[in-house]
Design brief:
It is found in: Cytoplasm. One of its GO terms (cellular component) is cytoplasm. This is Sulfotransferase. GO terms for molecular function: aryl sulfotransferase activity. The protein is an alpha/beta fold and 303 residues long. It has one domain (11-291): Rossmann fold. It has helices spanning 11-18, 30-33, 37-40, 59-70, 83-86, 100-106, 125-128, 140-153, 163-172, 180-190, 201-206, 208-219, 225-234, 237-240, 278-291, and strands at 20-23, 26-29, 49-53, 112-115, 132-137, 196-200. It has a four-stranded parallel sheet with strand order 4-3-5-6, sandwiched between helices. The termini are far apart.
Length: 303
């Protein structure tokens, strides 16, 4: 179990926390890839459920949805602990704390597992055990904005600098977890060989009940319409942003500084329009057309 305390990160750990290194061709947080073996050889269980996303694509939102589904919509059970303990982040490593793998090994089945790994870095045991895997993708422009604000909050991430610098880094694929294009396309292609449920953030915003039904069908779960409505309400942005078991307010400001910007900031589709200049948008669109040429993957940048 992760339990954060004030001033728990030592000064000597800060440089490592800020470091992003190239790992097998993917920029990754140095702290996450040191001692990679436990992740690479992670032993999946047949009833594990994996939630994979590029960062800032609705991970916490869908984590809460999954936990509610597996607890039959019981709100009290979903208040038993913070979301990062109920749905551990597999590849996370923080000095002096249990790793994501350590957390998961102690959990009873069925386990809900969160990861941001690109497809090529996923442990093979998930495919061997034929686990249920859900991937959630969000349009590239909104991810860029959300990831920028996230970098400003998280001590373990490098200083993003001004927006124009961060956007350039993001477009170059040099931010942690690498290219958004490679990530979403890699998982999209994998679904052809493996039974992955590929969902879109914008669809979830447009009609959460419809998309949660897709998740239920995929997981072979049945819930009453009353419970389904409860899940829709409980996992709405308005409710989750006030839920301390979901909004990361339990993490001290010296680790996740929410003084100026909340972890659950807006939860909108189309907020990129408030941040991209006309020139930035044109350059982004040109790159997008080149990078997405030949794929059947399509995104909406507003709903």
């Amino acid at each position: 179990m992760l339990k954060f305390e004030e001033n728990m990160i030592k000064d000597e750990d800060i440089e490592m926390l800020h470091s992003v290194v190239s790992f097998r061709g993917v920029p990754m947080a140095k702290m996450n890839v040191e001692n990679w073996e436990p992740v690479e050889y992670f032993q999946a269980r047949h009833d594990d459920v994996v939630l994979a996303t590029y960062p800032k694509a609705g991970t916490t939102w869908v984590s809460e949805i999954l936990d509610m589904i597996y607890n039959g919509g019981d709100l009290e059970k979903c208040q038993r602990d913070t979301i990062y303990n109920r749905v551990p982040y597999m590849e996370i490593r923080i000095p002096g704390m249990p790793s994501g793998v350590d957390q998961l090994e102690l959990l009873a089945s069925p386990r809900l597992i969160k990861t941001h790994l690109p497809i090529q870095l996923m442990p093979e045991s998930f495919w061997e055990k034929k686990c249920k895997v859900i991937y959630v993708a969000r349009n590239a422009k909104d991810v860029a904005v959300s990831y920028f604000f996230f970098h400003q909050m998280v001590k373990a991430l490098p200083d993003p600098g001004p927006w124009d610098k961060f956007l350039a880094d993001y477009m170059n694929g040099t931010v942690s977890y690498g290219s958004w294009y490679d990530h979403v396309k890699g998982w999209w292609e994998k679904r052809k060989q493996y039974g992955i449920l590929y969902l879109f953030y914008e669809d979830l915003k447009e009609d959460p009940k419809r998309e949660i039904k897709k998740i239920l069908h995929y997981l072979e779960k049945e819930l009453s319409d009353e419970v389904l409505e409860k899940i829709v309400h409980h996992t709405s942005f308005q409710v989750m942003s006030k839920n301390d078991m979901a909004n990361y307010k339990t993490i001290p400001n010296d680790i996740l500084n929410q003084t100026n910007t909340a972890f659950m900031r807006k939860g909108e589709a189309g907020d990129w329009k408030n941040h991209f200049t006309v020139a930035q948008n044109e350059a982004f669109d040109n790159q997008y057309q080149e990078q997405m040429l030949g794929t059947s993957l399509h995104f909406r940048t507003a709903i």
